[in-house]
Design a protein that fits this description.
The complex is a heterotrimer of chains A (about 325), B (about 190) and C (about 425). By secondary structure, chain B is an alpha/beta fold. In chain B, about 25% of the residues lie in helices and about 30% in strands. Chain B is built from four helices and nine strands. Chain C is built from twelve helices and 21 strands. Classes of the chains: A alpha/beta (about 325), B alpha/beta (about 190), C alpha/beta (about 425).
Amino acid sequence: MSEPAFRHLLDIEDLGDRDGIEEVMRLTDSFVEVSERTIPKVPALRGKTVAWLFYEDSTRTRLSFETAAKRLSADTMNFSVSSSSVKKGESLRDTARTIEAMGIDAIVVRHASAGAPHRIASWVDAAVVNAGDGWHQHPTQALLDTYTLRSRLGDLDGRHVAIIGDIKHSRVARSDVWAFTRMGARVTLVAPPTLLPPSLEGWPVEVSHDLDAVLPTVDAAYLLRMQRERMTEALLPSLREYTACYGLTERRAELLADGAVVMHPGPMNRGVEIAAEVADLPNSLILDQVRNGVAVRMAVLFLLLGSGSDKVPTVRSDG
Amino acid sequence: MAERERRQAPPYGGIFVPRTRVMERDDLRRAVWRMAHEIVEANAGVDDVVLVGLQTGGIPVADSIAEALSSITGIDVEVGSLDVAFYRDDIGLRPVLPEAVTTIPWNLDGHVVVLCDDVLFTGRTIRAALNALSDYGRPRAVQLAVMVDRGHRELPIRPDYVGKNLPTRRDEVVDVSEDGVDLGEMRR
Amino acid sequence: MTDAPTIVIKGGRVVDPDGSRDADVVIEDGRIAAVGADLSADRTLDAAGCIVAPGLVDLHSHLREPGKEEAETVETGARGAALGGYTAILAMPNTTPAIDSAAVVRQVLELGRDAICDVFSSGAITVDRAGEQLAPMAEMAALGVRIFTDDGTGVQDNRLMRRAMEYAAGLGVTLAQHCEDDALCGGGHMHEGEWSARLGIAGQPAEAEELMVMRDIALARLTGCSIHFQHMSTARSVAMIRDAIAGGLPVTAEATPHHFTLTHADCRGYDPVFKVNPPLRTDADVAAVRAGLADGAIAAIATDHAPHAPETKELPFDQAPPGMLGLETALALALTELDLPIEQVLALLSWQPARIMGVDDLHGSLAEGRAANVCVIDPEATWTVDGEAMASRSRNTPYQGREVRGRVRHTVLHGEPVVVDTEPQR
């Protein structure tokens, strides 16, 4: 078995091809088992310290990472940026180096600016995990989405996933597209042209503006959060019109084939991109996504921090 | 120690070159039967006994002991598997990845757990296994069954049931398969 | 000055608007005294194997003074310019305060008086470059300002731009435009296209530049005012300018080295050293800019030298300010990257921008009797770009570590050797 080839997790691309994602999936299986125990905690990362550097509020993602780190017995430190002296304008480099000087092994970064984790990774020796950077990527979300889909659908080869909504501003879409397609799935983006990226050159996707036509053909409908501020940017006439054209209403949910599933990265705008009733249907994997988030993040932290020197090859557990 | 696995994990691994056959297939079968009888005797039956094989070499050992126990007592003993990767003391020193998902789907409170492995060497894997087991409950007792005890312990751990005591040099390698047990070296 | 020793630049090949020839150049009293074979003087500057050319002229330098002296000063900017072979640079008006009055023009010219490169000042078109009210162009023109621009931003309002051009036509000055429609690229940080989509960074469409080029060509036709297009970056901009020139309109244009050497793909590592305005564009745009330089649609290479203090480039890509250093690398990049004869490269870097800037009485010629503004270039010398080694106060060169060809050996400013053997003399 190959050792992890990545020092940081900044993009899904850091995991390389399909094998890299499979490796995370396999490890996640083990951590799902850990999470189901009476004492869902292992000593694997004792003595390691993981710091949160969140320039953007995100209780959900931070809690998920924090639970993951604690279940691995790592120490955690919250460098709460919004409430500290760090404001827009302070050198990212100074902040990152200050944190590293405290002896941190991994920095989990969320930032409103695309590429901020990449910059930090270029300045520090600690492992950097991207917990969402602007519109760019949110790789652990993509991994937990992939894990969740596989748990329900099995192998993703030839499966058809529609990603629906505001692709243009979505770091989730920008990660899921690569994760799903590398695992063999076919991805269709469904959105009005104003909410698609300005170029899809090089993206392994199909595009549709007709949700009703796409829904019967998919194995999974992945809905993105529709942010209200998009209305002010002349991207959409109104939320009502968005829901009418692209919302997963009860009527539309009936177009889904038997066994097709519904996903959403949360937090949901019930009644906008997804009808309240649809979110609670048995084929909704939304809570599974949250549950698997912890195990996937344990896998990522363990791969980055538990794998040790890259000079020595992997020793299997029975060694 | 699942020495076979080491074939794929250089620099410890390489190609296993057998030198001496130390147990034949029949020897293995007899050892399993003897250990099963000892387990029954020591625990006055198998009512509370569960077997837990260590990934990966301990799994077939646990399975064959369970089969023997079933023949002896007529009772099917539960068999679980344990992967100790997350409990190892060399995490971070070298890449460590679990081999398989642990399956211990019962609370171990009050049970007698017989840990099963193929080769007992430094004892570090068993130390990790003892830690891991405590996360699944509080067993009444934990016992250890190994097919081969090759010595060179680095921790105060001793087996309760042994298929064969095999004096070895540290640099030798013991390979347990269903065909038998070989002593040899790794060619890097 | 009659006591000053005479100087001969010996053994080189002279290239200027009059052509190319192997000749020595004698300088006396700050002027070119003679160009010919086997000349001698009190002091000799060795030019064996070198090109002897008129000093380079930059239409587009951000010297940051007054206001951002931590990034650059007139003195350090001029020093970098001299090392890059320049004898004249045009300071852009986006300082703090903006160069939008005679007082600030005077200050900049005063700061440049002792520099080792002639520093000319541009003036803002509108007060505080805010695009609302015309700046006092006549009072600035009286101090010698020949180019007016709101560079850093374009004049957005159509009516105001029309008035500015009408007014400027009466003064005989040139307006220079930073072409960018703010509404169309509002919030953008790089070229809108394949890479902005992949990287998740808001884009600036090529059309934002092209719309303003189109408008200003129309206004040049309407007003007769001469307009200079700054840092042209898109294929369609170049094509429109080519057509406008063919149509006889008073239009000129410049392009920067980074727009003929780098593309938006260079932004993929999120290093803001590649963030610039207008943004790095596509391979096709780079090819079109190169073609424009080759066929004359673009008459000048300008640096858009834009120093930024290091900590400002340590922000995330979308928060960092746009701009990159240029004065010390422009010549080498042009010689290394442009597949053009050296005579044409020097025309783009020296006498053509000198004419646009209205300083061709002092710069851009080695004819006898002209001011002795000279640069001596070793066209085969290779060197590695290193921001740390630059004279600029800032380090934001996107070419760090790149090997380039062509190095300035000597620079002579009004008869004074200010750079000798690549070393500044004061």
